[in-house]
Amino acid sequence: DIDCVYEALLNTAIDIDSLEADSRLDEVWIKEVIKKSGMKLKWSKLKQDKVKENKDAIRRPPADPALLTPRSPVVTIMGHVDHGKTTLLDKLRKTQVAAMEAGGITQHIGAFLVSLPSGEKITFLDTPGHAAFSAMRARGAQVTDIVVLVVAADDGVMKQTVESIQHAKDAQVPIVLAINKCDKPDADPEKVKKELLAYDVVCEDYGGDVQAVHVSALMGDNLMALAEATIALAEMLELKADPTGPVEGTVIESFTDKGRGPVTTAIIQRGTLRKGSILVAGKSWAKVRAMFDEHGKTISEAYPSMPVGIIGWRDLPSAGDEILEVESEPRAREVIDWRKFEQELEKNKDDLKIIEEKRKEHQEAHQKAREQYGTLNWKERSFKKYLERKEQRPLKAKKKAEGDSNVLPIIIKGDVDGSVEAILNIMDTYDASHECELELVHFGVGDISENDVNFAETFDGIIYGFNVNASNVIQQSAARKRVKIKLHKIIYRLIEDLQEELSSRLPCLV
Ligand code: GDP
């Protein structure tokens, strides 16, 4: 209901902008805001800094180094199509399922853990290829610590090999080279290493620091060596995270499960996720109902670098969305509201720019008025303005007895200073553009009084009340004296009413 919004807008505006601040209201401007933003918003919500505040409020400062503990690496497998990425991932996963003995059904959760005999763990992201990697990066997510670059030994460096290298470099993620298909008779691993030199990927044999492992994903040959090389690199990177405090993570995948509703899989990057935690991600939030690992097993805690399936989302977040834990459900809702609002703002950016310019204009006008009227309060200021106007243009309103005049004398009463000033300010603009067919003969705060009625009677004027009452006694007195009292609760209605009165009084001028 646009009227309600309008009223809310006006009222909020009056609340927010204290009397000495910018309380100048422009009817057109507010209408514009509603129209352009296309949303039913409160004025205060237009404050973009508030959006930012709500976005950043839940982001924690960097962790205290004392709280950091080692974490396992998160690895993405990249390389040219058909060089064996999927086969490699499948084999790595199978080594784990075999090792699990239980032989449980593996669930696709976008990532899985490989445990080495040494007890070290590696998290492999399940979606091979740089499309997924760059999609995540485009969203600002940096989940990957290490890229395993797969190059087929029979094929050598190809287009997507080069692209993968570029992506890893852009993200400043180090590479471990997996020279694949070494079981093939025409495999030439040395050729691969040489070719890579041209792309600044220098293997250890050539004096560089890139470890190269000859593997056969198909046969499962040397995969442990690849895992160990990855761990060796991870140790050098000294990967650490703070496992305490509110959780941070990244959505790897999200999908709707028939039985469980929206599910996301995520990599935890900070804190420890537990059942009952309240999370926000993108424009969705969750109260964690359950968590499970890649074997479909329910888990009670998820630590940094752990892939985890999370149930309890209200909507589906997107891959790459940042997950942040918040303290309560209301807070989660608030954050989501602000994010949605921000999106709307973004959609209406250009229109809002115009609105913002208008607002600036008004602020400047207000500033000017302030310079002109110094430290006077609104009443003194209004009165001074009123006197000045009078000086420039003698009061045209004549007492009833003196006969007809070309003006509409009015009396304005409002509930609070702010509302009266707002009306006066709108009238000011109106005044200027219409060569004063309106004349304010009296104004003030409070219910309509006998004094107001007398004023109105004397000048044959109309009383306008905003958010005020007129008692029965006053109503009767006004009726006797043939004085119109018009009460409004919405400023623009009041202004419209005024304009109608004007046009009915001065049909030739409007
Ligand atoms: P992706 O496109 O990089 O994911 O490549 P795939 O894993 O789908 O493998 C492409 C083809 O290469 C498949 O036919 C695999 O069976 C085969 N392949 C993958 N790894 C090896 C390997 O180590 N040796 C041999 N001989 N073939 C392999």
Automatic annotation (TrEMBL):
Transmembrane domains' residue ranges: none
Cell compartment(s), UniProt: Mitochondrion
Residues in coiled coil: 338-372
Origin: domain of life: Eukaryota
GO CC, any one term: mitochondrion
Cell wall biogenesis/degradation as UniProt keyword: no
Domain Tr-type G intervals: 70-247
GO terms of molecular function: GTP binding; GTPase activity; translation initiation factor activity
Keywords, sorted A to Z: Coiled coil, GTP-binding, Initiation factor, Mitochondrion, Nucleotide-binding, Phosphoprotein, Protein biosynthesis, Transit peptide
Function statement: One of the essential components for the initiation of protein synthesis. Protects formylmethionyl-tRNA from spontaneous hydrolysis and promotes its binding to the 30S ribosomal subunits. Also involved in the hydrolysis of GTP during the formation of the 70S ribosomal complex.
Subunit annotation: Monomer.
Family: Belongs to the TRAFAC class translation factor GTPase superfamily. Classic translation factor GTPase family. IF-2 subfamily.
Name the UniProt record assigns to this protein: Translation initiation factor IF-2, mitochondrial
UniProt organism field: Castor canadensis (American beaver)
Span of the entire protein shown here: 108 to 617 of 726
